[in-house]
Design brief:
- The complex is a heterodimer of chains A (147) and B (301).
- With 147 residues, chain A is of the alpha+beta class.
- Chain A has 2 helices and 9 strands.
- Chain A has a single domain (2-145), classed as Jelly Rolls.
- Chain A is 21% helix and 40% strand.
- Residues 13-21 of chain A have low confidence and may be disordered.
- In chain B, 59% of the residues lie in helices and 8% in strands.
- In chain B, α3 (90-109) packs antiparallel against α6 (151-171) and α10 (233-248) runs antiparallel to α11.
- The chains are: A alpha+beta (147), B mainly alpha (301).
- β7 of chain A pairs parallel with β5 (269-272) of chain B, so a sheet runs across the interface.
């Protein structure tokens, strides 16, 4: 009886594990990512992922002429400065944050409506610790009407 | 008390395990543990991107584009608020949460405050039925009420609610439902755009915006493909692929190579060049018919 109670308790605790890992991202996107969009209106979508040094991700987005846009790419501090590039669909680099003081956003407008790709890279880990960090990275997009 | 003490080592071990995994993770969890249902593809340089995401323009943005292109508001094209009680499956609720969100965006952009409140209530009801907590609350209704007449604030409140909805679904391992909400919103925005274009005398601007949706339709289909085993998604994909067939024939005009320029006075960066698309009247009519068909399927689910 006591043993089965212990096992149940352990299972209940472990069942919270996936939720806690997602919660790690959740608090981060809402608190650290969304405010960086101001004064742009969010497109209402959360693109976030747990990433480790050396990991990369890609997001394909649509942009329309006549609007101003902000792309925010932000990672938890444990991951260091997250790199991102904005490319056209032919792969030409249009913006590289590592050439702009590692800023975590890019404001722009497009002359013609088009698809663009955002490539995100978490830099390699340079610490001495054997435990490789793992953290949340989020890409969020906002728009506003051109003035 | 004694029994509780005997559980402490177990609790200590469990919590240690939780914090260890939460803080450090393991090599196996990367890529699988993404919140948004991403997948893997090989990019241009032959490098594999571990997480590939597809983003869909929001109904707020699409409705803004249609309004700026000269559309005139018509309440008849929106989904009947009375339908909200009919949606009993999660498929119907998710798709129509997107539909009502788009209608809420349209009514707000066209300054129809009373109707916005009605569509907000429809959205809230479906969000509640889907078990999405916190996205639409009494506070949301109060904030909408307090900001009557301030369109930008109202749009921010709506986008915050849909951001919270998306976040809640992804954080609770329901990215397929999130994709359906996005699909419902995109389809409703397309449907409303085509209907308003048909009733506008000078509709070239609206038709151009509908042509511009070609790329985002491809993104939407790619996103839904990730959930094609989910109930109803294959049928939805069938409708959208029919729409893609029409868009496939839309003319793509090759433009200059993309370039980036920043205006020194305004500090505004513009990405110039890139291809443009143009749609014939016949293609517009076909898109309009297809949009009507899939939208009817959704609102009568």
């Amino acid at each position: 009886m006591k043993r089965s109670l212990q096992c149940s308790f352990l299972l209940i605790l472990l069942s919270f594990l996936p939720g806690m890992m997602h919660a790690q991202c959740k608090g981060f996107v809402k608190k650290s990512g969304l405010p960086k969009l101001t004064p742009f209106i969010s497109n209402g979508q959360v693109q976030s992922s747990q990433m480790r040094p050396g990991d990369n991700a890609e997001i394909v987005l649509s942009f329309f002429s006549g609007q101003d846009y902000r792309i925010v790419v932000t990672g938890q501090p444990i991951l260091g400065n997250v790199r991102f590039k904005v490319k056209d669909m032919q792969g030409n680099v249009l913006f590289n944050n590592s050439e702009s003081d590692d800023v975590d956003f890019f404001d722009f407008r497009v002359a013609n409506s088009q698809q663009l790709k955002v490539e995100v890279l978490v830099p390699a880990y340079s610490g001495d610790n054997n435990i490789v960090p793992n953290g949340c990275v989020a890409v969020i997009v906002g728009f506003k009407t051109e003035k | 008390m004694k029994n509780f003490r005997s559980l402490l080592p177990v609790a200590y071990f469990s919590l240690s395990a939780i914090f260890f995994f939460a803080a450090c993770g393991s090599s196996e969890d990367v890529g699988d543990d993404n919140d948004s249902g991403g997948n893997s593809i090989t990019t241009d340089g032959g490098k594999t991107a571990q997480n590939v995401f597809y983003s869909i323009p929001s109904p707020i943005e699409l409705a803004t584009l249609v309004q700026k292109a000269g559309a005139t508001y018509d309440t008849k094209v929106l989904n009947d608020p009375m339908n909200v009680s009919k949606y009993s499956t999660s498929l119907a609720q998710a798709l129509n949460l997107g539909v009502y969100g788009a209608d809420l965006s349209v009514t707000t952009i066209f300054d129809q405050t009373q109707e916005s409140v009605i569509y907000l209530k429809c959205s809230r009801r479906l969000a509640d039925e889907l078990g999405i907590t916190g996205a639409f609350s009494d506070n949301t209704v109060q904030r909408m009420d307090n900001n009557k007449g301030n369109r930008d604030s109202l749009l921010n409140i709506i986008s915050d609610s849909y951001f919270s909805t998306d976040e809640y679904l992804k954080e609770n391992q329901r990215p397929g439902i999130s994709a359906l909400v996005l699909a419902g919103g995109w389809i409703e925005a397309l449907y409303v755009g085509t209907q308003l274009a048909k009733s506008s005398k000078n509709n070239a601007g609206i038709i151009q915006r509908i042509a511009d949706l070609k790329g985002s339709l491809e993104n939407l289909v790619s996103l839904l493909e990730l959930y094609k085993n989910q109930e109803g998604v294959n049928e939805l994909l069938g409708h959208l692929k029919g729409l893609m067939e029409v868009y496939k024939d839309v003319q793509v005009n090759a433009g200059d190579k993309t370039s980036v320029q920043t205006d020194e006075k305004t500090n505004v960066t513009t990405i110039g060049g890139g291809s443009t698309v143009s749609m014939t009247q016949k293609q517009f009519e076909e898109v309009s018919l297809r949009a009507e068909k899939v939208r009817k399927w959704i609102v009568t689910l």
